[in-house]
């Protein structure tokens, strides 16, 4: 399946890009995808990386063809 990955903040700096399109296995989970990209780009502090699917932080949905997965840096609250 084809997914669009978007990278923001320190993650975009680490990857050297803000977006890429990947063809992945239909059985890949969101967390497998996260681990794959963290290893690929040697992203520091992987626990701080948050994910969103189609601009939704509720990660209960499974990945499907055409989804956009955002890799987000830590948020600061206030």
Automatic annotation (TrEMBL):
It comes from the Bacteria. This is Molybdopterin synthase sulfur carrier subunit. It comes from Christiangramia forsetii.
């Amino acid at each position: 399946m084809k997914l669009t990955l978007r990278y923001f903040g320190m993650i975009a700096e680490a990857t050297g890009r803000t977006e890429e399109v990947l063809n992945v296995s239909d059985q890949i989970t969101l967390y497998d995808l996260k681990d794959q990209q963290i290893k690929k780009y040697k992203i520091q502090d992987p626990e701080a990386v948050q994910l969103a699917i189609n601009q939704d932080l509720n990660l209960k949905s499974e990945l499907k063809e055409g989804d956009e997965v955002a890799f987000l840096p830590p948020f600061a609250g206030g």
